[in-house]
Structure formats: C-alpha cells, structure tokens
Amino acid sequence: MLELRNVSFSYSGQTDGGLRSISLRIPNGECVLLCGRSGCGKTTVTRLINGLIPNFYPGTLEGEVLLDGKPIAEIPMYQIAGRVGSVFQNPRTQFFNVDTDSEIAFGIENKALPPIELSRRVKLTSKELGIEGLQNRNIFQLSGGEKQKIAFASVYAMNPDVYLLDEPSSNLDMASIRALGDYVRLIKSQGKTILIAEHRLYYLMEVADRIVYLEQGEIAGSYTPREFCKLSGSERRKMGLRAIDLREESPECPAALQSGLTLELKDISLFHKKRIILEHISLKARQGEVIGVAGYNGAGKTTFSRALCGLHKECSGSFLWNDEPMNHKKRLRLSYLVMQDVNYQLFAESVEAECTFGIKNPDRELTKQTMEELGLLSFRKRHPNTLSGGQKQRVAAAVSLISGKELLIFDEPTSGLDYDSMAQVGGLILTLAALGKIVFVVTHDYEFICRTCTRVLHFNRGKMQDDFLVSTENETKLRNLFSIDL
Amino acid sequence: MNNQPKLECNGLTVKDLVTTGIFSAIFFIFTMFGGVFFAVNPVLTFYMPMGSALLCGPIYLLLVAKVHKRWSITILGVIMGIVWFVTGMHWAFSLGYISMGIIADMTAGFGHYKCKKLNMLSYMLISLGGIFTYLIFFIDPEGWAGAMLKNGTEQSYIDAMHTASPSWLPIVMIVGTLFVAAFSAWVGGNMLRKQFEKAGITV
Amino acid sequence: MMGQNQILPLWLDPRTKILLLLLCVLSAMAAPSLQYEFLLVAGIGILGILCGKWKYALKGIVFYAMVYLFTVWAMNSMTGTLRNMFVAFLGLFHKVFPCGMLSGIVISTTKVSEFLSAMNHIHAPKKLIIPLAVMLRYIPTIGEDWRYIKDAMRMRDVSPSFQGFITNPGITIDCVYVPLMMAASKAADELSVAAVTRGIENPNPRTCLIQIRLGAGDAFTTLCFAAFFLAGMYLKEAG
C-alpha cells in the first residue's frame, strides 16, 4: 500500500514540477496511470515513492509519503530499491554494464544474492520476459526498444512489490511500446502495484485501474478507464493529453501547397560498410510537402535521412534538385537534420548566439524575424540548455532557416512530448512547409502523422514498400502500417 | 522541513562517483587523442605530455566544479593510472598520474575546490603526470637503451647523452607542459563561465 | 557460468591477466638484450594464439620483427643527434611494445563484467569500482556522442577535422566540448538515479553474476612468465 498524505514539494532553485497538497492512496495490486502536461508534477510523484526525493533531489517537502504504513524518508535508499523498482525514460543512460546479462543482474547483485541465485534469476527473468534472444549481448549494439526491455528486466529480476515507470515509452517505436504494454499486463497479473507517469496513453487503457490527472502540481481529476474514455476529443486536448484510442484518430490531411522547386531521388540505394541497407528508392517531392517516414527500428530510416542531407556518403543513384544533380556536399549545403536528441546540435551560450553561430556576416534582420516567427524572441538571452525539448527543436529549426536551408528533416520530433508540445511541433512544421521548405519527418507517432504529414513513406525489409498521400481514402493503409486494428 | 540531504555531507555520493567515472572516461580519451600524434613520432615523443595537457582543461575544471569534494581528483588519477597500466603504457606513466592526482587533489582542496586559481594550478599539476616516463630517461639513460645497444651500453652513447643531449630538454618539457596546461585551464575556465554555469549544470 | 566461450584452448582469470601484465612490464624493464625482448614478444604471441587471437598475434610479431631489424640497422649505421633521437624513441618503443601487445590481448579477451568481478574479488573499495565501471561503460558512449556531434558540425559548416580546428579554433572548441559535456553531465544524473534506485548504496559487499576461477592454465601461464622474468634478471646480472 502506497499513500501520499497531503504532500507538497518544491525543487530548490526551480519553479516547475512542484506539487501542492497531493493526497493519494494506492492499494496493493492497483495500476495507476498519472497523466498531465509536461511539468505538471507527475514525475515528481514517482520520485517521492522511489525515495529519490528527498534522497537525491533537494527541495522543500511537506506531508508524508508512506510505503506499507512506514514513512519512506526513514527507509534507507537501498532498502527502498528492493521494494520499489523504477524504469526511466531514456534507455541510453540507464545501464551500468556493457553486456546484457550483467545488466539484468545489476540490481540483484547489489542486493548481494548468492551467485547461483543470481544466474537462476537472470535465466528466469529472460524467459518470463521473452528476451532470451538478448542474452549475452553487447548493450551498445541493441536498439532503444531492446535497451528498454533490458532496463525493465533488471528491475523485474529484483522482484519488487511496486513498479514505477516514468515515461517509459518516450523513445520507443510502436512495436516496442506494444511489448512494454505486455510487460505491464504481466506484472499486473502477478499482483504488483504499478504507477506509470506517461504522455502516451492508448497502450495502457486496458490495464490501468485508475487514471489520475495532474495540473500544475495538483490532482485535478481521478477517473476510471471507462469514465476517461468518455472524454471527448476536445476536452482531452484542452487537458493537454495525447490520444486515448488511436482508432479514433484519422488523417486531417492539411492541404499541401504544391509548387515550385522539386527534389527528385532516382534509384537510390544505400549501403553501410558495403552491406545494403535500402535499395531502389525513387521519389519526387515538391516544396511545401511534409513527408512522414515510417517503419520499424532498423529499417533504414536514419540512414535514409542522413543520406538525404549528405551526411551518409555510401550511396548509389542520383539526387536531383530542380533537375540538377547534387553530390553530398551540395546536399549538405541545402539541407538540415533536426536530431532526435537536439542537444547535440546546440553549441552557443544563448539562443541569439546560437542562431548566428558560425555564420560570418549574419543578417541581423533575418535573424530577428526568424526568431519572432518561431516564437523565440522572449528566450533570446537564455542558454539553449535551459529550454524545454520542444523549444530546443525550435532553436534548431531557426538555425536552419537563417542559414537558408531548403530541405529539413526531423528525426522523431515528438518523442516524450505532451499534447500541447506535440501540437506546437506540428505547428512549427506546417509553418516551415508554408515557407516553401520540403520537410521530412521520421516518426513512429501515428497521431502526429495524421495531424501533420501530407504523405507517408514506408520502409521495410530494405525497400520502400509504400509511398502514399495521407488522406481519408488511404486511412486503412495508414492504419495497417501502424498495425492499428479497426 | 527543509532537506538538503547528502549534498552537504563530506563523503562522496553515488552521483559524485558516477560523475567522476564519466569525466574520467572523457579525460582518458582526450589525453590519448591529444598525445597520440606526438607519441608515434620520434622527433616529437618528448612533447607528448604537452599534447595531452592541451585538451583536458575544460573537462577537469567541470569535474571539479560538479563534484567539489575531496577524493574525486585522486580517483581520477588512480583510474588513469590503472588504465595506463592495463593498456601497457610505461609503468612510470601510471605512477605519475597516481601521485600527481593526489597532489592535485590536495592543491585544489586548499581552496575548497572553489578557488579558480587553485583549481587551475591543480590541473597544471595533474598534467605533469605524463612526464615521469621521460624524466626517467634523463635520470637513467643507460637503463633506458641498455637492451638495444651491444655490450650493455656504449660509452659514446653515454657521453653523447651527457653532453650533446640538451639538459634543457627536461626543463622545456616541464615548463612547456605547465604552460600548455595553464592555457587549457584558462580556456576551460572561460567555457565554464560562459556556457556551463549559465546552463545550470555545474551544480 | 554464463557466456563463456569454451572453444578457446585457454581462458585466463582477469587477476592472472593483470599479474601477467605486471610481469611483462618487469621483464621489459629488466630486458638484458633485444633478443630477450624478441622472445618476450614471441611468448606473448603464443599466448595470443592460445587465447584465440592468432591474427592479432601474428601481426604483432611481424611488426615487432620489422622494428627489431630497423633498430639493429639504426644502431649500427646511424650517428650523431639523429641516432640519439632514435635511441630515445626506440628505447621507449621496445619497453612499451610488449606490454601494449599483451594489453591488446588482455583487453580483447576480457569482458568488462569479468574485470569488475575480479576487482570485487580482490576487495577493491566501492569508491574505486563504481567510477571505474562507469568509465569503462562510458567510453563507447563517447564514440556514439562524437558521431552525432560530427554530423551536427558538418551541418553547421564547421569541419570536424584537424584543419577545421586550426582555421576556426574558437568555434570548433565550442562545437566539440559543449555538446559532449552537456551530454556527460546529463548522463551522470540519469545514470546515478538508475543506480541508486537499484540499490547500489547497499553497504554490504555486492556479489557478482560472472564467477571467475583460477585454474591450471592460470598457474602454468604465470609460471612461464615469472620464469622468463627471472631468466632476464639473471642474464642482466651476468651480462
């Protein structure tokens, strides 16, 4: 049994994410879904329960957090760890070892279980979670989804009573999200208490017993799944929540302003170390199009986008811009990739400096105008690192506009974003399209494709399997692509 | 109830240890990267510590700013020592990094790890870890090349070492390394102020 | 025991490997002659072959043989400052090469987890094991980060090369350090959270999934290396 009694918390030196008089009782075996906008405090609630507050994050805490009737503040961190297991958002920074077996064993090694028991548990865990195929592998060679499975397995091996999942699906593709949903069902069937803070809601609707909606650090609503599903689309969006049921989402097909310059790919094949990744891709794109690129992890989407902007050089066939062939250098000059982890492409000490970074004679007027268009003027003195994920993407987009790029590629722009931020990214991309750019969006996000893209490319098994317009006629195709049953 | 747990107490927390580990990794890669061009070149071998000292200033200063507690720099030195040993470098390399790590830790400790000048000096000292190997060459040139030359050591070689081989070279090495390290620390200090403090990651 | 490759004729305990490294350093230090060093390198080559690294071992021996011949030639026919320079450089080379070659075999045949298990066995303090484990795990991450950063630099028209650094030092420094250190400090936070919530602060000594065991192979190899070292000492004294 978990209980929060009138808990208030504020992080020291930070205004976001605090909590105000939260009271919540979670009986054993219940699965509670916490949702709300970014910064509403849902992650903070999980941190109260796994003891990271007050042990790790300093701040001002009032009220009591009880685990089976005992205040969590009085239990040492390592004992909490045995009873409350946590899985986090970023699969890249959760593992401590280089190989999968040791990583699965990490928690139980800390518990100092005898070696025979360790290997028994690792085997059992791999079997129950269906990841025998990942045993004895180098973690650096796993995909994000596989890494997340290992992170889950490591917690599962410790067999805690309570599971906390903090935005576990943020960096996963559709298939991995489904696998995660299965894991949650599995632990629920074992009678575990589960608390999940999430933006993506649809995959948890069957398994959640209760949905708690937080707003600005307060509990603003508590629903049963049935009540929750009755919320209308507009109510839900007003609450800043992502789709509850993907079946209700359908293409909104924003009209593409098709005109002017074109990009043409003629029989492009991509290689990596002489091994073929994708072959025989031919397509034409016009200014103003927003083209979604979909497919499983490892289907070559990343290689494709890197080749498109001239970063990946091992390719055959020709890229034409207005019928002029472009080598990789020309493509590099013409295009810009907004990375999934946008932090890698922010270098300067302020947003303003970032916009003109590396440009010899920056056009002050253009810089100012672009910042205004993308809503960055009020942040211009701030360090890019202090901005939110969505805002950082805006800065990267501003950079691309100021340096006159025509072809923009976004890699997973909506990972870990709430509804409002997703809508803003959508707005940003539509703005760019209206400015006459060609935009490619690599994404697993069905909801986002429906709202933003005019066209979808589907990569699978080394080929471009499909290329179609996002329209009501093609809805079935689109749903099949994301395996959403009707 | 205002709790500032663990952050104020003296021992290293898990976070400090993890931070030390991560920055040691970067420190190691950059030391190697800076030194490798010199190490494989007979003319420049002796200037390798300078190459290594050039790149690590910002990393070192950010580590000190993030942890600012005793032992962290010593651990960095010991890890560098272990890694150099395991990668088969000359033993004096390991010894140099471990001992200079301890000295650098004490130096920065005098300013409670907050004094910019002492932190800078402490980086300059740890950079000297790389020159031990070469000093041994100057202290004992016979032992250095003994295996290569027939009949133990040739008298002509010894004479050449004592006369022709410039006695200023060790001084150039030490002073040069200190100078390069100071420059690197100066760049690092600026970067810390301009970027990392503003970005709020030095806490 | 899990994941151990049983096909190899020789599997050594990481503790033995460290001891071999130490003996190798000592032997290289004591080396009475170049022939002795050559034997040492050949011995390491045999060890490499037994550990399944025959390609690496052969390359190492061939390369060393070439430098060996060059050294003999240089010592006999060079004069003056040039010779002194090469004496200094080759002196270091001959001392370091056997150790470097052995370390290549050690590193490529030891899993990080085995190494940490060994550290655990010799009761190294947690304050050292944790940073060391993190460091070993973070080195590949730096490689990943660097690939992203290179891409980002190219798109900004900053060349991620030595030339780029010379022509544009200020900008290149920002491009390399800023994202790398931001990523590092974020990783430090998230990694420590992931470790703390899995009970790393437990004061009891941790156990280890990978079990390491000393065997006959370990004893035999150690004896060979120790004997070789002693022979070197003897030759030197006698020499």
UniProtKB/TrEMBL annotation, chain A:
It is found in: Cell membrane. Gene3D superfamilies: P-loop containing nucleotide triphosphate hydrolases. Residues 2-241, 263-486 form the ABC transporter domain. It is a peripheral membrane protein. The keyword Ribosomal protein does not apply. One of its GO terms (molecular function) is ATP hydrolysis activity. Its main location: membrane. It holds the Pfam family ABC_tran. Keywords: ATP-binding, Cell membrane, Membrane, Nucleotide-binding, Repeat, Translocase, Transport. One of its GO terms (cellular component) is ATP-binding cassette (ABC) transporter complex. InterPro entries: AAA+_ATPase, ABC_transporter-like_ATP-bd, ABC_transporter-like_CS, ABC_transpr_CbiO/EcfA_su, ECF_ABC_transporter_ATP-bd, P-loop_NTPase. Belongs to the ABC transporter superfamily. Probably part of an ABC transporter complex. Responsible for energy coupling to the transport system. This is Energy-coupling factor transport system ATP-binding protein. It comes from Lacrimispora xylanisolvens.
Automatic annotation (TrEMBL), chain B:
InterPro entries: CHP02185_IM. Pfam families: Trep_Strep (PF09605). Keywords: Membrane, Transmembrane, Transmembrane helix. The chain crosses the membrane at residues 21-40, 46-64, 71-89, 95-113, 120-139, 168-188. It comes from the Bacteria. This is Energy-coupling factor transport system substrate-specific component. It comes from Lacrimispora xylanisolvens. The lineage of its organism: Bacteria, Bacillati, Bacillota, Clostridia, Lachnospirales.
From TrEMBL, chain C:
The keyword Transmembrane helix applies. InterPro entries: ABC/ECF_trnsptr_transmembrane (IPR003339), ECF_transporter_component (IPR051611). The keyword Heme does not apply. It is found in: Membrane. GO terms for cellular component: plasma membrane. Pfam families: CbiQ (PF02361). Keywords: Cell membrane, Membrane, Transmembrane, Transmembrane helix. The chain crosses the membrane at residues 54-74, 86-108, 214-235. CDD domains: EcfT (cd16914). It is a multi-pass membrane protein. PANTHER family: SLL0384 PROTEIN. This is Energy-coupling factor transport system permease protein.
